[in-house]
Write a structure and sequence with these properties.
Elements lengths: L3 H5 L8 E4 L10 E5 L12 E5 L8 H13 L4 E6 L9 H10 L3 E5 L4 H31 L7 H9 L7 E9 L2 H6 L9 H23 L4 E5 L2 E7 L6 H18 L5 E5 L3 E2 L4 H11 L10 E3 L5 H5 L5 H9 L2 H11 L3 H10 L4 H7 L4 H15 L6 H19 L8
Parallel strand pairs: 2-3, 3-4, 4-5, 9-11
Antiparallel strand pairs: 1-5, 6-8, 6-9, 6-10, 7-8
Helix pairs in contact: 2-3, 7-8, 11-16, 13-14, 14-15
Length: 415
Protein backbone atom coordinates (compact mmCIF):
# COMPACT_ATOMS: atom_id res chain seq x y z
CA UNK A 1 0.00 0.00 0.00
CA UNK A 2 1.11 3.58 -0.69
CA UNK A 3 2.04 5.67 2.34
CA UNK A 4 2.66 9.36 2.96
CA UNK A 5 6.36 8.55 3.20
CA UNK A 6 6.29 7.05 -0.33
CA UNK A 7 4.61 10.17 -1.71
CA UNK A 8 6.97 12.56 0.07
CA UNK A 9 9.99 10.94 -1.54
CA UNK A 10 8.35 10.48 -4.95
CA UNK A 11 9.95 12.83 -7.49
CA UNK A 12 6.55 13.62 -8.98
CA UNK A 13 5.53 15.13 -5.62
CA UNK A 14 8.66 17.25 -5.19
CA UNK A 15 6.54 20.41 -4.69
CA UNK A 16 5.14 19.03 -1.42
CA UNK A 17 6.70 20.27 1.81
CA UNK A 18 6.22 18.40 5.09
CA UNK A 19 5.66 20.90 7.92
CA UNK A 20 4.40 18.60 10.71
CA UNK A 21 3.46 15.04 11.64
CA UNK A 22 6.64 13.25 10.59
CA UNK A 23 5.87 10.35 12.93
CA UNK A 24 2.69 9.67 10.96
CA UNK A 25 4.33 9.28 7.55
CA UNK A 26 3.53 5.55 7.49
CA UNK A 27 -0.19 6.29 7.29
CA UNK A 28 -1.65 4.53 4.25
CA UNK A 29 -2.99 6.55 1.29
CA UNK A 30 -5.99 5.07 -0.47
CA UNK A 31 -6.73 8.02 -2.80
CA UNK A 32 -6.43 11.77 -3.30
CA UNK A 33 -9.34 14.10 -2.53
CA UNK A 34 -10.17 17.78 -2.19
CA UNK A 35 -11.83 19.40 0.82
CA UNK A 36 -14.56 21.65 -0.54
CA UNK A 37 -16.93 21.67 2.45
CA UNK A 38 -16.76 21.15 6.19
CA UNK A 39 -17.05 18.96 8.20
CA UNK A 40 -14.66 16.52 6.55
CA UNK A 41 -15.84 13.13 7.86
CA UNK A 42 -19.07 12.56 5.86
CA UNK A 43 -17.27 13.04 2.53
CA UNK A 44 -14.36 10.63 3.02
CA UNK A 45 -13.98 6.89 3.59
CA UNK A 46 -10.61 7.16 5.33
CA UNK A 47 -7.11 7.01 3.93
CA UNK A 48 -7.42 9.94 1.52
CA UNK A 49 -4.61 12.48 1.16
CA UNK A 50 -6.76 15.62 1.17
CA UNK A 51 -5.98 18.94 -0.55
CA UNK A 52 -7.37 22.04 1.15
CA UNK A 53 -7.85 25.19 -0.93
CA UNK A 54 -9.60 27.19 1.78
CA UNK A 55 -11.85 29.19 -0.53
CA UNK A 56 -14.85 30.51 1.38
CA UNK A 57 -13.93 28.63 4.57
CA UNK A 58 -12.63 29.54 8.01
CA UNK A 59 -8.86 29.94 7.59
CA UNK A 60 -8.27 31.49 10.99
CA UNK A 61 -5.87 29.90 13.43
CA UNK A 62 -8.79 28.29 15.26
CA UNK A 63 -10.37 27.15 12.00
CA UNK A 64 -7.15 25.49 10.75
CA UNK A 65 -6.59 23.76 14.08
CA UNK A 66 -10.12 22.36 13.91
CA UNK A 67 -9.49 21.29 10.32
CA UNK A 68 -6.43 19.23 11.28
CA UNK A 69 -8.36 17.60 14.13
CA UNK A 70 -11.30 16.84 11.80
CA UNK A 71 -9.00 15.24 9.22
CA UNK A 72 -7.31 13.11 11.86
CA UNK A 73 -10.66 12.02 13.34
CA UNK A 74 -11.83 11.09 9.82
CA UNK A 75 -8.77 8.79 9.48
CA UNK A 76 -7.40 10.68 6.49
CA UNK A 77 -3.84 9.84 5.50
CA UNK A 78 -2.72 13.46 5.61
CA UNK A 79 -3.57 17.04 4.73
CA UNK A 80 -2.09 19.28 2.03
CA UNK A 81 -2.77 23.01 2.46
CA UNK A 82 -2.38 25.35 -0.52
CA UNK A 83 -0.45 28.50 0.32
CA UNK A 84 -1.07 31.76 -1.54
CA UNK A 85 -2.77 35.15 -1.46
CA UNK A 86 -6.19 33.77 -2.39
CA UNK A 87 -5.78 30.59 -0.31
CA UNK A 88 -4.09 30.23 3.11
CA UNK A 89 -1.37 32.79 3.75
CA UNK A 90 0.66 30.81 6.31
CA UNK A 91 0.47 27.91 8.76
CA UNK A 92 0.27 29.13 12.38
CA UNK A 93 2.69 27.51 14.82
CA UNK A 94 -0.22 26.19 16.92
CA UNK A 95 -1.51 24.24 13.88
CA UNK A 96 1.92 22.67 13.44
CA UNK A 97 1.92 21.75 17.12
CA UNK A 98 -1.53 20.16 16.78
CA UNK A 99 -0.45 18.03 13.81
CA UNK A 100 2.74 16.95 15.61
CA UNK A 101 0.75 16.04 18.72
CA UNK A 102 -1.62 13.90 16.63
CA UNK A 103 1.21 12.42 14.51
CA UNK A 104 -0.82 13.58 11.53
CA UNK A 105 1.13 14.45 8.34
CA UNK A 106 0.62 18.08 7.35
CA UNK A 107 2.00 19.27 4.01
CA UNK A 108 1.99 22.57 2.18
CA UNK A 109 2.26 23.33 -1.52
CA UNK A 110 2.59 26.65 -3.30
CA UNK A 111 -0.61 27.55 -5.10
CA UNK A 112 1.39 28.33 -8.21
CA UNK A 113 2.49 24.70 -8.49
CA UNK A 114 0.64 22.40 -10.87
CA UNK A 115 -1.65 21.00 -8.17
CA UNK A 116 -3.80 18.99 -10.56
CA UNK A 117 -0.71 17.22 -11.88
CA UNK A 118 0.41 16.59 -8.31
CA UNK A 119 -2.91 14.95 -7.46
CA UNK A 120 -2.74 12.89 -10.65
CA UNK A 121 0.74 11.62 -9.75
CA UNK A 122 -0.53 10.61 -6.31
CA UNK A 123 -3.48 8.76 -7.81
CA UNK A 124 -1.16 7.02 -10.28
CA UNK A 125 1.17 5.94 -7.48
CA UNK A 126 -1.74 4.63 -5.39
CA UNK A 127 -3.13 2.80 -8.43
CA UNK A 128 0.20 1.09 -9.07
CA UNK A 129 0.40 0.08 -5.41
CA UNK A 130 -3.13 -1.32 -5.62
CA UNK A 131 -2.13 -3.35 -8.67
CA UNK A 132 0.82 -4.78 -6.76
CA UNK A 133 -1.52 -5.51 -3.86
CA UNK A 134 -3.89 -7.37 -6.19
CA UNK A 135 -1.00 -9.50 -7.49
CA UNK A 136 -0.02 -10.36 -3.93
CA UNK A 137 -3.66 -11.16 -3.08
CA UNK A 138 -3.72 -13.62 -5.98
CA UNK A 139 -0.59 -15.25 -4.54
CA UNK A 140 -2.23 -15.68 -1.14
CA UNK A 141 -5.43 -16.95 -2.77
CA UNK A 142 -3.45 -19.60 -4.64
CA UNK A 143 -2.13 -20.91 -1.33
CA UNK A 144 -5.68 -21.60 -0.19
CA UNK A 145 -7.01 -22.98 -3.49
CA UNK A 146 -4.34 -24.88 -5.36
CA UNK A 147 -3.07 -28.39 -4.75
CA UNK A 148 0.38 -27.51 -3.47
CA UNK A 149 3.45 -29.71 -3.45
CA UNK A 150 6.26 -29.23 -0.98
CA UNK A 151 8.77 -29.07 -3.81
CA UNK A 152 6.78 -26.52 -5.76
CA UNK A 153 9.48 -24.07 -6.73
CA UNK A 154 7.04 -21.63 -8.29
CA UNK A 155 5.33 -21.01 -4.95
CA UNK A 156 8.66 -20.42 -3.25
CA UNK A 157 9.82 -18.08 -6.03
CA UNK A 158 6.58 -16.09 -5.81
CA UNK A 159 6.93 -15.87 -2.04
CA UNK A 160 10.42 -14.41 -2.34
CA UNK A 161 9.21 -12.02 -5.06
CA UNK A 162 6.55 -10.63 -2.69
CA UNK A 163 8.95 -10.41 0.23
CA UNK A 164 7.49 -13.41 2.04
CA UNK A 165 9.64 -16.00 3.79
CA UNK A 166 8.25 -19.31 2.44
CA UNK A 167 9.68 -21.26 5.38
CA UNK A 168 8.58 -18.84 8.10
CA UNK A 169 5.95 -19.33 10.80
CA UNK A 170 2.52 -17.88 10.00
CA UNK A 171 -0.95 -17.82 11.50
CA UNK A 172 -4.22 -17.22 9.68
CA UNK A 173 -7.06 -15.27 11.27
CA UNK A 174 -10.58 -14.71 9.97
CA UNK A 175 -12.13 -11.36 10.88
CA UNK A 176 -15.86 -11.83 10.37
CA UNK A 177 -18.82 -9.43 10.21
CA UNK A 178 -20.94 -11.81 12.26
CA UNK A 179 -24.37 -10.14 12.04
CA UNK A 180 -23.89 -8.70 8.56
CA UNK A 181 -27.22 -9.94 7.17
CA UNK A 182 -29.25 -8.46 10.03
CA UNK A 183 -27.26 -5.23 9.94
CA UNK A 184 -27.80 -4.76 6.21
CA UNK A 185 -31.51 -5.56 6.46
CA UNK A 186 -31.96 -2.91 9.12
CA UNK A 187 -30.10 -0.28 7.09
CA UNK A 188 -32.20 2.47 5.54
CA UNK A 189 -29.84 2.62 2.58
CA UNK A 190 -31.02 -0.75 1.34
CA UNK A 191 -34.31 0.84 0.31
CA UNK A 192 -32.54 3.19 -2.06
CA UNK A 193 -30.70 0.79 -4.37
CA UNK A 194 -30.47 -2.77 -5.61
CA UNK A 195 -29.89 -5.19 -2.71
CA UNK A 196 -26.88 -6.98 -4.22
CA UNK A 197 -25.17 -3.73 -5.23
CA UNK A 198 -25.73 -2.23 -1.81
CA UNK A 199 -24.37 -5.29 0.03
CA UNK A 200 -21.28 -5.57 -2.18
CA UNK A 201 -20.44 -1.87 -1.93
CA UNK A 202 -21.09 -1.87 1.79
CA UNK A 203 -18.88 -4.88 2.48
CA UNK A 204 -16.19 -3.41 0.25
CA UNK A 205 -16.15 -0.27 2.40
CA UNK A 206 -16.07 -2.30 5.63
CA UNK A 207 -13.13 -4.38 4.41
CA UNK A 208 -11.27 -1.29 3.19
CA UNK A 209 -11.62 0.37 6.59
CA UNK A 210 -10.34 -2.77 8.32
CA UNK A 211 -7.45 -3.14 5.88
CA UNK A 212 -6.54 0.54 6.24
CA UNK A 213 -6.48 0.26 10.03
CA UNK A 214 -4.32 -2.89 9.93
CA UNK A 215 -1.92 -1.48 7.33
CA UNK A 216 -1.49 1.67 9.40
CA UNK A 217 -0.37 -0.43 12.37
CA UNK A 218 1.76 -3.09 10.69
CA UNK A 219 3.26 -3.50 7.22
CA UNK A 220 4.11 -7.16 7.92
CA UNK A 221 0.51 -8.39 8.13
CA UNK A 222 -1.33 -9.22 4.92
CA UNK A 223 -5.07 -9.20 4.29
CA UNK A 224 -7.38 -10.87 1.79
CA UNK A 225 -11.06 -9.76 1.63
CA UNK A 226 -13.57 -12.59 1.28
CA UNK A 227 -17.19 -11.34 1.38
CA UNK A 228 -18.15 -10.87 5.04
CA UNK A 229 -14.75 -12.24 6.09
CA UNK A 230 -11.37 -10.57 6.01
CA UNK A 231 -8.64 -13.20 5.94
CA UNK A 232 -5.55 -12.03 7.81
CA UNK A 233 -2.14 -13.68 7.36
CA UNK A 234 0.35 -12.74 10.07
CA UNK A 235 3.93 -13.88 10.57
CA UNK A 236 4.84 -15.10 14.04
CA UNK A 237 8.23 -13.90 15.19
CA UNK A 238 9.84 -11.60 17.73
CA UNK A 239 8.71 -8.49 15.84
CA UNK A 240 5.14 -9.73 15.32
CA UNK A 241 4.20 -12.00 18.25
CA UNK A 242 0.74 -13.58 18.23
CA UNK A 243 -0.33 -11.46 21.21
CA UNK A 244 0.38 -8.27 19.26
CA UNK A 245 -1.61 -9.46 16.23
CA UNK A 246 -4.54 -10.52 18.39
CA UNK A 247 -4.66 -7.15 20.15
CA UNK A 248 -4.48 -5.37 16.79
CA UNK A 249 -7.44 -7.35 15.44
CA UNK A 250 -9.46 -6.74 18.61
CA UNK A 251 -8.75 -3.02 18.16
CA UNK A 252 -10.00 -3.36 14.56
CA UNK A 253 -13.23 -4.91 15.89
CA UNK A 254 -13.67 -2.02 18.34
CA UNK A 255 -12.99 0.50 15.58
CA UNK A 256 -15.50 -1.09 13.18
CA UNK A 257 -18.18 -1.43 15.84
CA UNK A 258 -17.77 2.25 16.65
CA UNK A 259 -18.08 3.11 12.95
CA UNK A 260 -21.06 0.77 12.47
CA UNK A 261 -23.14 0.86 15.67
CA UNK A 262 -24.85 -2.47 16.52
CA UNK A 263 -22.51 -4.37 14.19
CA UNK A 264 -20.79 -7.43 15.66
CA UNK A 265 -17.28 -8.51 14.59
CA UNK A 266 -15.48 -11.65 15.71
CA UNK A 267 -12.08 -13.26 15.09
CA UNK A 268 -11.25 -16.89 14.35
CA UNK A 269 -7.64 -18.01 14.89
CA UNK A 270 -6.00 -21.05 13.33
CA UNK A 271 -2.92 -22.85 14.58
CA UNK A 272 0.55 -21.73 13.60
CA UNK A 273 1.55 -22.92 10.13
CA UNK A 274 5.13 -24.00 9.52
CA UNK A 275 5.71 -22.42 6.11
CA UNK A 276 3.38 -20.98 3.48
CA UNK A 277 2.47 -24.43 2.12
CA UNK A 278 0.49 -25.12 5.31
CA UNK A 279 -1.50 -21.88 5.40
CA UNK A 280 -4.63 -23.58 4.05
CA UNK A 281 -4.84 -25.74 7.17
CA UNK A 282 -4.53 -22.70 9.43
CA UNK A 283 -7.24 -20.93 7.43
CA UNK A 284 -9.70 -23.83 7.73
CA UNK A 285 -8.98 -24.04 11.45
CA UNK A 286 -9.71 -20.31 11.85
CA UNK A 287 -13.08 -20.78 10.11
CA UNK A 288 -13.87 -23.81 12.23
CA UNK A 289 -13.11 -21.88 15.40
CA UNK A 290 -15.97 -19.52 14.48
CA UNK A 291 -18.47 -22.41 14.60
CA UNK A 292 -18.19 -22.53 18.39
CA UNK A 293 -21.11 -21.11 20.40
CA UNK A 294 -20.53 -17.35 20.37
CA UNK A 295 -20.39 -15.21 23.50
CA UNK A 296 -21.57 -11.60 23.46
CA UNK A 297 -18.49 -10.19 25.20
CA UNK A 298 -15.90 -12.27 23.37
CA UNK A 299 -13.97 -11.41 20.21
CA UNK A 300 -11.36 -14.16 19.79
CA UNK A 301 -12.19 -17.82 19.06
CA UNK A 302 -9.01 -19.88 18.99
CA UNK A 303 -8.95 -23.30 17.30
CA UNK A 304 -6.23 -24.36 19.70
CA UNK A 305 -8.66 -24.06 22.64
CA UNK A 306 -11.63 -25.81 21.01
CA UNK A 307 -11.24 -28.92 23.16
CA UNK A 308 -13.35 -31.86 22.00
CA UNK A 309 -14.33 -30.02 18.82
CA UNK A 310 -10.79 -30.47 17.48
CA UNK A 311 -11.41 -34.24 17.55
CA UNK A 312 -14.88 -33.95 16.02
CA UNK A 313 -13.61 -31.85 13.12
CA UNK A 314 -11.16 -34.60 12.23
CA UNK A 315 -13.70 -37.44 12.14
CA UNK A 316 -14.50 -37.78 8.46
CA UNK A 317 -17.61 -39.93 8.79
CA UNK A 318 -20.71 -37.97 9.76
CA UNK A 319 -22.58 -41.29 10.02
CA UNK A 320 -20.39 -42.43 12.93
CA UNK A 321 -21.17 -39.30 14.91
CA UNK A 322 -24.83 -39.32 13.96
CA UNK A 323 -25.19 -42.91 15.14
CA UNK A 324 -23.67 -41.95 18.50
CA UNK A 325 -26.47 -39.50 19.30
CA UNK A 326 -29.39 -41.39 17.74
CA UNK A 327 -30.06 -43.41 20.88
CA UNK A 328 -29.37 -40.61 23.32
CA UNK A 329 -30.28 -36.94 23.06
CA UNK A 330 -31.74 -37.24 19.55
CA UNK A 331 -34.65 -39.19 21.06
CA UNK A 332 -35.41 -36.12 23.15
CA UNK A 333 -35.58 -33.98 20.01
CA UNK A 334 -38.10 -36.39 18.50
CA UNK A 335 -40.15 -36.34 21.70
CA UNK A 336 -40.16 -32.54 21.80
CA UNK A 337 -41.35 -32.32 18.19
CA UNK A 338 -44.06 -34.91 18.71
CA UNK A 339 -45.44 -33.50 21.97
CA UNK A 340 -44.40 -29.83 21.66
CA UNK A 341 -42.24 -30.19 24.77
CA UNK A 342 -38.91 -28.61 25.75
CA UNK A 343 -37.00 -31.48 27.33
CA UNK A 344 -33.98 -31.08 25.05
CA UNK A 345 -33.46 -27.49 26.23
CA UNK A 346 -34.03 -28.61 29.83
CA UNK A 347 -31.27 -31.22 29.54
CA UNK A 348 -28.93 -28.73 27.86
CA UNK A 349 -29.33 -26.20 30.68
CA UNK A 350 -28.91 -28.97 33.27
CA UNK A 351 -25.65 -30.10 31.64
CA UNK A 352 -24.40 -26.53 31.22
CA UNK A 353 -24.91 -25.96 34.96
CA UNK A 354 -23.00 -29.16 35.82
CA UNK A 355 -26.02 -30.78 37.41
CA UNK A 356 -26.92 -27.85 39.68
CA UNK A 357 -30.73 -28.18 39.72
CA UNK A 358 -31.47 -24.92 41.52
CA UNK A 359 -29.35 -22.83 39.16
CA UNK A 360 -30.67 -24.62 36.06
CA UNK A 361 -34.29 -24.07 37.19
CA UNK A 362 -33.54 -20.38 37.79
CA UNK A 363 -32.03 -20.05 34.30
CA UNK A 364 -35.26 -21.45 32.81
CA UNK A 365 -37.46 -19.31 35.13
CA UNK A 366 -39.33 -22.37 36.45
CA UNK A 367 -39.85 -23.82 39.92
CA UNK A 368 -37.28 -26.30 41.18
CA UNK A 369 -39.92 -29.05 41.56
CA UNK A 370 -41.07 -28.50 37.97
CA UNK A 371 -37.48 -28.86 36.80
CA UNK A 372 -37.08 -32.11 38.80
CA UNK A 373 -40.25 -33.48 37.16
CA UNK A 374 -38.76 -32.74 33.73
CA UNK A 375 -35.51 -34.48 34.65
CA UNK A 376 -37.46 -37.55 35.75
CA UNK A 377 -39.23 -37.60 32.37
CA UNK A 378 -35.87 -37.27 30.56
CA UNK A 379 -34.48 -40.24 32.53
CA UNK A 380 -37.55 -42.27 31.61
CA UNK A 381 -37.34 -41.45 27.89
CA UNK A 382 -33.60 -42.05 27.63
CA UNK A 383 -33.65 -44.93 30.11
CA UNK A 384 -30.69 -43.51 32.06
CA UNK A 385 -29.78 -42.41 35.57
CA UNK A 386 -28.59 -38.78 35.49
CA UNK A 387 -26.86 -39.19 38.85
CA UNK A 388 -24.41 -41.59 37.21
CA UNK A 389 -21.21 -39.70 36.36
CA UNK A 390 -20.53 -41.71 33.19
CA UNK A 391 -24.06 -41.08 31.93
CA UNK A 392 -23.65 -37.37 32.65
CA UNK A 393 -20.38 -37.17 30.68
CA UNK A 394 -21.80 -39.23 27.79
CA UNK A 395 -24.73 -36.84 27.50
CA UNK A 396 -22.41 -33.82 27.56
CA UNK A 397 -20.39 -35.36 24.75
CA UNK A 398 -23.57 -36.19 22.81
CA UNK A 399 -24.74 -32.59 23.15
CA UNK A 400 -21.44 -31.30 21.74
CA UNK A 401 -21.69 -33.74 18.81
CA UNK A 402 -25.26 -32.65 18.13
CA UNK A 403 -24.38 -28.95 17.87
CA UNK A 404 -21.31 -29.78 15.84
CA UNK A 405 -23.40 -31.74 13.30
CA UNK A 406 -26.37 -29.43 13.05
CA UNK A 407 -25.13 -25.95 13.96
CA UNK A 408 -21.79 -25.67 12.13
CA UNK A 409 -21.24 -24.04 8.76
CA UNK A 410 -19.54 -25.36 5.63
CA UNK A 411 -15.79 -25.71 5.86
CA UNK A 412 -15.07 -25.52 2.11
CA UNK A 413 -12.76 -22.52 1.64
CA UNK A 414 -13.06 -19.86 -1.05
CA UNK A 415 -15.75 -21.53 -3.15
Amino acid sequence: MATCRDILYNNAARDLTLVAGERGLDRVITWSSSILVRPVNPWNNGGELAFYYGAGMDNSETGLNELVEECCDANLAGLVILLGNTYVLEIPSSVIQTANKLNFPLFTVDSEAYVTGLQQSIVLHVTMEEKAKAEKAEFWRSLFLEDLRENDREIFNKAHYFGVDPAGLYCVYVLRFDNMEDYVESSKGIMQMDHAIFVNDFLDNVNKKAEYFIAGQSSQIWTLPRQKDLVVIAPENAKVPASKTIQLLIDVCHNLETTYPKARFIIGKGMTADGVLHLRESYIQARRALTLPLEDDKYLYDYNTMGIYKILFNINSKAVLDDYIQNTIYRLREYDVKYNASLFDTLQVYLDNRGNVSKAAADLYIHRNTFLQRLAKIENILEVDLSNNQVFYDLQFSMQIFFYLYDTSSEVPFL
